[in-house]
Specification:
Blueprint: H1 2-12, E1 16-23, E2 29-39, E3 46-56, E4 67-72, E5 80-89
Parallel strand pairs: 3-5
Antiparallel strand pairs: 1-2, 1-4, 2-3, 4-5
Amino acid sequence: MSEATSVIEARNSRRLRVGVVTSNKSTQTIKVVFNYKVKHRKYGKYVSRRTILHAHDPKSECQLGDKVEVAACRPISKTKNWRLVRIIERGQGV
């Protein structure tokens, strides 16, 4: 019983990111932009950075501008290592 519980907890503790969909042109794939700020080592100023994640969207339900939550998973293709968990908020369609 405890082994099954630990497997479920391990699966639920995967990396989660929240970002905005910028492209849904590919079949079952979306591009999600994840923005964050990093403090510059020398000057101490905060600099904006971004990461573009390719996520698996099997139902092709995401639209441009949607705020989504994605989770890390096994490699699905060469660049796709994330999967869609849920749509947090519908966008206006950028």
